[in-house]
Amino acid sequence: MSSPPVIDVERLNLTYGDFRAVRDLSFQVRRGELYALLGTNGAGKTSTLETVEGHRAPTSGTVRVFGRSPGDRRAVRHRMGVMLQESGFSPDLTVRESVRLIGALTRRNDRVERVLGAVDLARKAGTRVSQLSGGEKRRLDFATAVYGTPELVFLDEPTTGLDIRSRDALWDAVDRLREDGATVVLTTHYLEEAQQRADRIGLMHEGAFHREGTVFELTQTLPAAIRFALAASAPVPPPQAARQGDGRFLVETFDLQKDLHSLLGWAQDHAVELRELEAGPTRLDDVFRAIGSD
Question: Superkingdom, according to UniProt (predicted)?
């Protein structure tokens, strides 16, 4: 028998006066998965997450985290780690003091040295928060979120401001959390991160899900693309190739391998060079750009 979902949202509605920010939203996050909640600006994802995290009460609908209301902080809060988009640390506290404070507030046990070592902040333990760089503050945000290895971790734009090495180190730490059984909910504007790492994605638009599924399921909703250019003296290309405004040709296909093979065969038969040839499957950013045009 499958385990109950870590997060269970059923027909969630959130309104601010006459504005309906979230509309009958339902989804589940399973134990151990990385679920990415993405959306256009104003889509309602922040309001949704604030409700799941227990910071906001739903206008209607039900939200359960570990089978309990997220408003039941004594039962739920110590099992969750939250990395907000912006730090709320006191600038006068040191890095060590900030981590200890979060540990005390969340009632989780850990060693400050272990957590700071995991995010390469051990040498900054005695430094005041006000003296940290932007990237160091983001690493401190992550350190406090994962202090005590919570069962559920919310990561809101976790890699903003991080250099490549710090970004890789953060994702390595997330991988270790997941190996230990943690569930992760991610929001990010770096769509390639969601494409590479998410088990499932909920793509929001105007307060509701535009689509939900695995990366493969989402990208299969749009055709793949083959783009190329031809010399002016070249023969007329196959009929499925449409000329674009820049003079190049575009083939949209749900069978990329077959149509690319056919196009290459046509070029071989006619001794034609396919200039600037590009071919590839639909990416998550293509799905994202299609929002609102369906």
Answer: Bacteria
- Burial (CB count within 10 angstroms: exposed 0-12, middle 13-18, buried 19+), residue 251: buried
DSSP-based three-state secondary structure for 19: strand
SS3 258: helix
Closest CA to 139 of 111, 99, 179, 178: 99
Cα(242)–Cα(61) distance, integer angstroms: 47
Structure tokens at 135: 């990237």
Q: At what angle do helices 164-179 and 134-146 cross, to 10 degrees?
A: 0
Among 123, 120, 116, 82, CA closest to 100:
116
pLDDT in tens, 148-197: 999 999 999 999 888 898 899 899 989 999 999 999 999 998 899 999 99
Integer Cα distance of 152 and 67 in angstroms = 13
Adjacent-strand bridge partners of 250: 227, 242
Query: How would you list the strands of the sheet with 249-253, edge to edge?
Result: 242-243, 249-253, 224-229, 275-280
Indicate left, alpha or beta for 70 from its phi (over 0: left) and psi (-120 to 50: alpha).
Answer: alpha
pLDDT digits (tens, 9 = 90+) for 64-114: 999 999 999 889 989 999 998 776 788 999 999 999 998 888 888 899 999
- Tell me the CA distances in angstroms from 236 to 76, 123, 150, 249, 260, one per residue in order: 65, 65, 61, 11, 17
Residues 6+ apart with CB under 8 A from 116: 95, 96, 99, 122, 124, 125, 143
Q: Specify the pTM.
A: 0.85
